[in-house]
Design goal:
- By secondary structure, this protein is α+β, with helices and mostly antiparallel strands.
- The protein has two domains: about 40-280, no CATH class; about 280-680, Neuraminidase (6 Propeller), CATH 2.120.10.
- The protein is built from nine helices and 38 strands.
- The strands form eleven sheets. Strands 1, 2, 5 and 8 form a four-stranded mixed sheet that branches. A four-stranded antiparallel sheet has the order 4-3-6-7.
- Strand 23 and strand 24 (about 485-490) form a beta hairpin.
- Helix 2 (about 135-145) packs antiparallel against helix 3 and helix 2 crosses helix 7.
- The longest helix is centred in the N-terminal third of the chain and has 28 residues, at about 10-35.
- The model is unreliable at about 1-40 (pLDDT under 50).
- Keywords: Signal.
């Protein structure tokens, strides 16, 4: 017989358990308190301060952290002095309460007025064991973070700052100080002048390292017109990116930055003559190639939509082909990282994609919408030709929708409700309504809340004869009141539609006896809801027929007030390198950027690089001293680069980079494949905006 078990009385058992829990709680609390009270872990960063490969002694080296996941903060972590060989060793620790963050880390090295800097990574675990700080890393950091630099501080919005780390690495390797692999290799490298421009900027900084007089010259001449000298070399580089041209009105004795670069030419290849601008234009084809072929990633990128984190969606006009082949309707949608690399899984197919043109947008829920214009060379219409070349005759009557993962939401034929016809401009408003400009039948299709089953067609004028539109709606933008402005390319008018889909106004192409609209294409809203229109003075969109026009004799842009819908005094505005304005965008400072399709007629020249034009907006606070609304900020040449072809679309990302489409080649053969195969990024050129762009741009210097 087993012995009876001894059991504790229930009351005593409860007391015992409570006491045990209390003791455990005290132990755990003590452990937590000990963890909080423990000093931050100390780490070490080693590196070299160099100029032209030689170590620089007696530089004060400081390591900083920019915290961007909460309230933006700029925090010094540690400092040291470089020895006789330029080597330094910085011991540092992240302050309590911030150890769980992934800060952006920067090195700044100073000696007198000379300064070198580098963006070295995101998060403590990604920092190289050793770094090199030199003129190239300084130029890379100054350009990529141009819109966030204020003195020695680098502070800004979360995604813009984080993404700029990758863009800086495209330009210079923080571990070695060498030219970054993106800038050094095809389709960049020696194929464009961007590498030489970058090296010339580095040479100007090298002059500052070598000579304090040259340093003071750099600080003085880099300052925005009418403002005090730059506070340091890093800010000087940033100011050159923000105000990249030195016309005779600003520098009557010639470009001072170029002159400085000639005195210490240690980095090569470098520019042999002063550029039209110091902007750095990086080219991306989706791979290490530039030659057009059927295995390219894209052929005729048309326009962009940028998501909240800075990832970039691109529509594509045509199937990739060599230059001597016909171009059939594009069947793909592309996505790039904020630093310009194709996202894994791109390109995306399906959803009814068919020769997309200018229309692409993101809605508030993150869906991507693409207007299927149906571009194709005439032989592609033949089913036998299409079958032989693995293509399909284009469709011109749908819009496609994709999820953020790149999977199609629309079926194989796209969404066709609402009498869609040769769609071009495609935009979302903040309520999630999708608006589609139907170039082929003089109307607009509205998808309420993005629902294709509730599609509504809005006539902008009399119903045209089939295939012969008289207005040719093209560009579309949404003002601060939710009204949709449609640029009518052939009609030389603007149609204004209320948020509920009513046509409320038609703005004529003449005002007080002057022409204010001339073959308008793209349009864009500024931060207050005023609308800017790009007047091509040439394009008659082929939807499907077009008139053969001569040259663009009076290319211009026009600003319309949101409240009165009348042209802003002085409109239309000219100059600034306008050749054939197509796309247009407004940045966070209300500066207006215009993207030129280049000289016309097409196919007659490849000698004249395409330029980007820049104008002072309605809010003049972001303009140089003495510059008024509509005045050009860019020189008469525009901001040119041989990296640019014929541009249609452009958008600004949270870092202030401008993304540009090389839609057609400069020397395009209109009969065979005329398209370009690249996108180009103007690094750090514009004031950042919040993305996605839905309605007026929202400035975002902080998030």
């Amino acid at each position: 017989m087993s012995k009876p078990r001894h059991r504790l009385p229930l009351r005593l058992l409860r007391r015992t358990l409570l006491a045990t829990v209390a003791v455990c709680g005290l132990v755990l609390a003590g452990t937590a308190a000990t963890a909080v009270a423990a000093p931050p872990r100390t780490s070490v960063l080693q590196g070299t301060v160099e100029s032209g490969g030689s170590g620089l002694s007696k530089f004060s080296v400081s390591l900083y952290a920019a915290f961007v996941d909460r309230e933006p903060r700029w925090v010094p972590l540690g400092s040291a002095k470089s020895d006789k060989n330029g080597k330094f060793r910085v011991e540092y620790a992240v302050p309590r309460g911030l150890a769980d963050s992934d800060p952006l880390l920067f090195i700044q090295a100073t000696r007198g007025p000379a300064m070198l800097a580098s963006s070295i990574g995101v998060g403590l675990d990604t920092v190289p064991q050793r770094v090199v700080v030199n003129e190239r890393t300084t130029v890379a950091t100054g350009n990529a973070f141009a819109q966030f630099i204020d003195g020695h501080r680098i502070v800004g919005n979360r995604y813009g700052m984080t993404n700029a780390v990758g863009m800086a690495a495209n330009l210079a390797d923080p571990a070695t100080g060498a030219v970054g692999s993106v800038l050094a290799t095809t389709p960049n490298g020696t194929e464009t002048s961007t590498l030489s421009t970058f090296n010339s900027l580095a040479n100007a900084v090298a002059g500052c390292v070598a000579d304090s007089v040259q340093c003071r010259t750099l600080l003085r001449t880099s300052a925005p017109p009418g403002e005090a000298p730059s506070k340091n070399v890093l800010e000087a580089v940033a100011n050159i990116a923000k105000y990249p041209s030195f016309p005779s009105s600003r520098a009557p004795k010639g470009d001072p930055v170029f002159a400085l670069s000639q005195r210490t030419p240690i980095y090569q290849p470098a520019l042999r003559e002063a550029p039209t601008s110091w902007l750095l234009f990086l080219t991306f084809t989706g791979g290490a190639y530039s030659v057009q072929d059927s295995d390219n990633l894209m052929n005729g990128p048309g326009n962009f939509a940028i998501d909240e984190q800075g990832f970039v969606w691109v529509n594509d006009n045509a199937v990739p082909q060599p230059p001597d082949e016909y171009a059939c309707a594009g069947l793909r949608l592309l996505k790039f990282t904020p630093s310009g690399q194709p996202v894994a899984g791109t390109p995306y197919f399906g959803g009814g994609l068919s020769g997309a043109g200018y229309g692409i947008t993101l809605d508030p829920s993150g869906r991507i919408w693409v207007g299927n214009f149906g571009f194709q060379d005439p032989p592609c219409i033949d089913p036998e030709f299409a079958a032989e070349h693995g293509s399909s005759p284009a469709q011109h009557n749908s819009v496609s929708a994709f999820g953020a993962d790149g999977l199609p939401l629309s079926g194989p034929g796209g969404y066709k409700n609402g009498n869609i016809s040769w769609p071009q401009g495609t935009v979302s408003d903040r309520a999630g309504n999708i608006w589609i400009a139907n170039c082929g039948n003089d109307s607009v299709t509205m998808l309420p809340s993005g629902d294709p089953d509730r599609a509504v067609n809005i006539a902008l004028g009399p119903t045209p004869v089939e295939g012969r539109p008289e207005l040719k709606p093209f560009g579309a933008t949404v003002d601060a009141r939710g009204n949709v402005w449609i640029a009518n390319n052939r009609g030389d008018t603007i149609s204004v539609i209320s948020p509920d889909g009513q046509l409320i106004d038609t703005l004529p192409g003449t005002f007080e006896g002057r022409t204010v609209l001339s073959h308008p294409v793209g349009n864009a809203t500024d931060t207050k809801g005023n609308v800017w229109v790009a007047n091509s003075d040439w394009l008659d969109s082929p939807c499907p027929t077009r008139l053969q026009l001569g040259e663009a004799e009076n290319p211009s842009i026009t600003a319309f007030r949101q409240d009165t819908r009348k042209p802003f005094p002085g409109s239309p505005f000219t100059g600034g390198g306008l050749t054939l304005p197509w796309g247009i965008a407004v940045d966070g400072n209300d500066t207006v950027w215009v993207f030129n399709f280049g000289v016309v007629p097409v196919g007659q020249t490849s000698d004249i690089p395409t330029g980007v034009s820049r104008f002072c907006g309605v809010d003049t606070r972001g303009c140089p001293e003495g510059v008024r609304t509509g005045d050009p900020i860019s020189p008469e040449t525009g901001y040119r680069s041989d990296a640019l072809e014929r541009i249609t679309g452009g958008q600004i990302d949270p870092s202030g980079n401008i993304w540009l489409t090389n839609n057609w080649k400069r020397d395009a053969n209109p009969v065979l494949n005329p398209f370009g195969n690249a996108i180009v990024i103007a690094v750090g050129a514009a004031a950042p905006v919040k993305t996605p762009l839905i309605g007026p741009p929202v400035p975002t210097n902080r998030r």
